[in-house]
Amino acid sequence: MARPKPETFDKQKTVAENRRARFDYHIEDKYEAGIVLQGTEVKALRAGEASIAESYAEVRDGQVWLINANVPEYSHGNRLNHEPKRPRKLLLNEREIAKLTGAVERKGMTLVPLSIYFNGKGRAKMELALAKGRQAQDKREYVKDRDWKRDKARLLREKG
After folding, report:
1. Other CB atoms closer than 10 Å to residue 103's CB: what's the count?
2. How far is CA 59 from the centre of its chain?
3. How many domains does the chain have?
4. For the chain: N or C, fewer Cβ within 10 A?
C-alpha cells in the first residue's frame, strides 16, 4: 500500500504541535508514523493534553523511539495510569527506518516531531521530519526572507 505524500496527511484533529521546529531546523522530508500508546495515553491525547516542544526521535536497534514527549496523566485514570515522559515506539516501514537511520548516521540529520494528530480513522499519528539544524545566521536569514515575503504580498495586495 502506497503512503500518501506529506501534503496529503489526513489530519482530523491536531493534539500537539511543535511550532519552534520549523524555525530551529531546515525540514528535508516528512513522514507519518503511528504511535504505540497505552489506554490512558489515548484518553489524555483525545482531551488535547500533550507537549512535544522538547521532544525528539531516535533510531535504536532498528526501531524509532519518541523521547521526552510529555503526555500528562489522564485525570480520571486510576492506578493503571501511564508514565508521562516514557519513551514511545513509533511505527514506520522497514524501508523508511533504513532511510532515516542512514540520514541520521551519515548526514548528521535529526528526527524532529512536528505534530501529533488523530487521522480520519481515529488513530493517533505523528508527523515526523528529517531535519538539519540551523545556525544563528541561518535563522536570521530565514526571518528576513519570511518578513520580505510578507511585505511583498502586502504590497501586491495594495497595488493590484
Report:
1. 19
2. 15
3. 1
4. N
- Alpha carbon 118 to chain centroid, angstroms: 13
Residue 66: which residues within 8 A CB-CB, separation 6 or more? 35, 55, 56, 57, 87, 88, 89, 90, 113, 126
66 found inside a domain: yes
Give 75-121 pLDDT, tens digit per residue.
777 777 878 888 999 999 999 999 999 988 888 888 999 999 999 88
List the CATH number of the domain containing 126: 2.40.280.10
Say how far apart CA 49 and CA 121 lie, in whole Å: 20
E-strand ranges in 79-156 read 88-91, 110-118, 124-133
Using CA atoms, how far residue 124 sits from 11, 26, 47, 91, 95, in Å, is: 10, 25, 13, 11, 21
Domain region containing 99: 11-134
SS3 110: strand
